[in-house]
Design goal:
The chain contains twelve helices and twelve strands. Helices cover about 30% and strands about 15% of the residues. α5 (about 110-125) packs across α7. About 40% of the residues are buried. The protein is α/β, with parallel strands linked by helices. The strands form two sheets. It has a seven-stranded parallel beta sheet, sandwiched between helices.
Length: about 325
């Protein structure tokens, strides 16, 4: 029997919340929606999505490169959240005439990732992962922590999220220093912190927190030399992108106790494999890319995506994305 209704996939809905975050009724009236609650690697995606006319992505949970797009000949619509997706083969999609719609940044959760950075800092400073486990298993006070007052917070990147870290650090009584390739002393002063060179940032900080966009220039911006410059009592926090840190160098330093520990929310490969080496270390606090996953951000993501899908199905697509990643 010939299929007449379009099929659209909502991908990587790990928490099973997509359908409750928006009114999908108008979309359901025009297409068949299928929610995937598990991650699909490319080969599996080719099979699972072969008969779909559209896909709705959440951030960069699932890579959608040109190689995958080429193997999905029925695909006509891609919905992304935000205005940039570095794992999307946008040019390939546009060359095929595929409609790509984006969402608009709004809501009260725009600082959520910076908030999680503080959660990881506090977890490491007070050994919370270990003590959480101890309390569940009947033990009592097996470690001692460190106060943040008088410590130094080093910010690698002082953009929108990095700047949000400054007043909180100062409220804790911390010295706040920062470095990035283009950071000026004036910009650092305006943000309320001190600009230092890269080596000083790593050598003097008790906590180094990463707040940079991933690019070819910033890939492995934290490598063997930077980690070697850190104090044995220092911690590194990454809520930005996994490949900002040379993973092999970090794991070696953690295993050899050359730094005190790490708080990580992002990884080179996501979801993090169940047998990954990072999961075996006792001096890390690991979270599954929770930085942006708050209702205040997820709800508008899904609401806009539902609107974008309905507009496309009605023949008047909105929030179109161009190849230079600027909406029009």
């Amino acid at each position: 029997m010939t299929r007449t209704r379009p099929r659209v996939a909502i991908l990587d809905d790990y928490q099973g919340i997509a359908m409750s975050m928006a009114d999908w009724g108008p979309a359901r009236a025009r297409c068949d929606l299928v929610v995937f609650d598990r991650h699909l690697e490319e080969e599996e995606a080719v099979q699972a999505l072969a008969d779909f006319d559209g896909v709705c992505l959440l951030r960069e949970r699932m890579a959608f490169p040109a190689t995958l797009i080429a193997r999905l000949p029925k695909l006509k619509f891609i919905g992304i959240t935000g205005v940039q997706n570095r794992t999307l083969g946008l040019q390939a999609a546009l060359d095929r005439g595929i409609v790509v719609s984006h969402t608009v940044r709004r809501g009260d959760g725009l600082g959520a990732t910076a908030e999680l950075s503080w959660g990881l800092i506090l977890a490491l400073a007070r050994n919370l992962p270990r003590e959480f486990g101890n309390m569940r298993e009947g033990r009592w006070q097996t470690s001692y922590g460190m106060s943040l007052g008088g410590r130094t917070l080093g910010l690698l990147g002082l953009g929108r999220l990095g700047r949000l870290m400054v007043p909180v650090g100062k409220a804790f009584g911390m010295r706040v220093i920062a470095w990035s390739q283009n950071l000026t002393e004036e910009a650092a002063r305006e943000a309320g912190c001190e600009r230092v060179d890269k080596h000083t940032l790593f050598a003097q900080s008790d906590f180094v927190s990463l707040h940079q966009v991933l690019s070819e220039r910033s890939r492995h911006i934290v490598g063997e030399a930077e980690i070697a410059a850190m104090k044995p009592s220092a911690y590194i926090i990454n809520t930005s992108r996994g490949p900002l840190i040379d993973r092999a160098a970090l794991i070696r330093a953690l295993r050899e106790r050359r730094i005190a520990g790490a708080g990580l929310d992002t990884y080179d490969v996501e979801p993090l494999p169940a047998d990954d080496d990072l999961r075996t270390l006792d001096n890390v606090a690991l979270t599954p890319h929770l930085g942006y996953t708050v209702g205040e951000l997820l709800r508008p993501f899904y609401e806009d995506t539902a609107e974008n899908l309905v507009a496309y199905l009605a023949g008047a697509p909105i929030r179109l994305l161009t190849v230079d990643a600027r909406p029009h």
